[in-house]
Amino acid sequence: xxxxxxxxxxxxxxxxxxxxxxxxxxxxxxxxxxxxxxxxxxxxxxxxxxxxxxxxxxxxxxxxxxxxxxxxxxxxxxxxxxxxxxxxxxxxxxxxxxxxxxxxxxxxxxxxxxxxxxxxxxxxxxxxxxxxxxxxxxxxxxxxxxxxxxxxxxxxxxxxxxxxxxxxxxxxxxxxxxxxxxxxxxxxxxxxxxxxxxxxxxxxxxxxxxxxxxxxxxxxxxxxxxxxxxxxxxxxxxxxxxxxxxxxxxxxxxxxxxxxxxxxxxxxxxxxxxxxxxxxxxxxxxxxxxxxxxxxxxxxxxxxxxxxxxxxxxxxxxxxxxxxxxxxxxxxxxxxxxxxxxxxxxxxxxxxxxxxxxxxxxxxxxxxxxxxxxxxxxxxxxxxxxxxxxxxxxxxxxxxxxxxxxxxxxxx
Length: 412
What we know:
Layout: H1 9-12, H2 31-40, H3 47-59, E1 63-67, H4 70-81, E2 88-92, H5 97-105, E3 109-113, H6 124-127, E4 135-141, H7 150-160, E5 163-167, E6 175-176, E7 179-180, E8 187-191, E9 204-208, H8 211-221, E10 226-229, E11 233-236, H9 247-257, H10 260-278, E12 284-286, E13 301-305, H11 314-323, E14 329-330, H12 337-340, H13 342-349, H14 372-380, E15 381-384, H15 393-409
Parallel strand pairs: 2-3, 2-4, 4-5, 5-8
Antiparallel strand pairs: 1-9, 6-7, 8-9, 10-11, 12-13, 13-15, 14-15
């Protein structure tokens, strides 16, 4: 039997500790009412449209296209752009497979940009060396909820005529210089999966101000590329998808949207307090919060350690933090996509389409060595995925005290 990856509540099952756990999730008080509307209408109410309009209004964008999850959201974006096979898409190297699944299925070639030093986010300086005459787009990931520095990235893309779009799955209502993550480029994908900040049962969406792109997203991503021909019926003019959000998921998402702002504000307050307290522990550095991050919709709290200061490995320290009461504490080297997506290097070495030449114009290789900054940071990073809006100041103080006690007993 394969040891399959777990998601949502199943991934947190059995976690214990003295700090809050996201599960059971707090559900908006109108969820049952909205689900009952779906049932009473016999599936005829426009719950999906209601959610789409509400989320678009909250973000201040023209279009929201609801999907079954974040991976489908990014997949239909990849399909809607309709780049030619072997087009290079520059993407953040520290992320999740869902970010690139659509790229792979559309036969694009992901090119991973390194992160900034001591960060999990890319920047214009790390993206620039990746640009070639095959590059068509830059896919930015706002990891942990901190928005990347988008103004220089957009300026760089404009110089080369490249599309920029965002994976904002961990950054719902995070702000960058007063603007929301997901509104900083041509389009963005969001996640409402149960473990995410605005957690529903599942769910996601794409947002954009581009009318033509929005129509193509619905056509390719939800109508399966089907058109109606008089006297014949449905014809599929391209291979599309049926990635439509379920009615009941839309009902829960709508209810969650009604309570998310205060939850994000609470996460922002608590992550800043926890960062301040943890920063007082010698040899431990909280994940940096840039000055431009007006609101940090933190999905995952992270620290990095000074390896020279401790007599144990990062994994050992993470294990001890979990045993001491921080549920879900662990390392995250698996976020390094060039190393964790082993099929990429296998396909590139085997010249499996689109790595065959043609359509590829050169040979590609994937591995940790391509992103030294990301490797360095992830090798020293410990995250706990239990951080949530349930944290209060006393939980931040307790968490910082646990970090302090564990750090002290492991010093060289």
